[in-house]
Amino acid sequence: MPSSDDKNGEAAPVSANFSVTVEIGSGDAKETGPATIGWLLAPGESHLIFAPPRRLKHISGKGSRTHAKSVSSCPAVLGLESRLFEILCPFDLTFEMGESDFGEPDVRNLDGAMSSVRDHALSHLIVVHPREEWRSPDLPLMQLRLPYIFVADEPVYMSQVPPFQHYSTTPLPGLMVPGRFPINVWPRTLTWAFEWHDTGAPLVLRRGDPLFYLMFEVFPQSRPIQLIEAERTPELEAYLQEIQGVVSYLNQTFSLFKSAEKIRPSRLVQPKAPPK
User: Fold this and answer.
1) Number of Cβ within a 10 Å radius of residue 95
2) Which fold has domain 32-58+70-263?
């Protein structure tokens, strides 16, 4: 540290002030308006069953805003809630975890003949992972297949997280497995992955309850999110076909992102035309 001598001949410390500016971004200064995110359902799926994704209704709006320091007025809370979208559970389902006749993990429908979903439909919706794919040897893993697809024409990462703003009187007997991936290069159908911790308790899902939240990362981060229903154009259909099924052949699919970008059309998001 540099120093200078004072009147007594002793070295006096010299203070120094530093100013550091850090710029974070993609380098594209043109992105100033809303970030447009497209969503659509896989072919043959009904909007009557699979409700459109919707912006999270502000929990803060239920409280009082008469005090400047109330949670309902907190910019951090409001900023997060404004970026959350929710996917509602499409079915009434009650499951228990058991074993098949061969000792393999198996999910049983406790609603039986009173179930709103037929057995053949459930066999397509539910995937129970073999033990070697579990994160822990005593925590069964299952997935609920869903037809939702999200896509963007600019760099956007989407995070799929548990519905932490929803209070359920019937807690889940385990944890939802979250995930994050870039929807501009890797649009794919979503699943709801569940890790069963209390295998002695049933898994109860109710139609209309939030199944999970979606949060989108854009640049600049202050840009609002505009969610639109997208048209399944020939370009989008061809691109989806290119990346469909890759998970069955490769373990590290994220390594294919750069290759996917090279074959990606410049535009995939086109607003769906209103019905005539």
Assistant:
1) 21
2) Deoxyuridine 5'-Triphosphate Nucleotidohydrolase; Chain A (2.70.40)
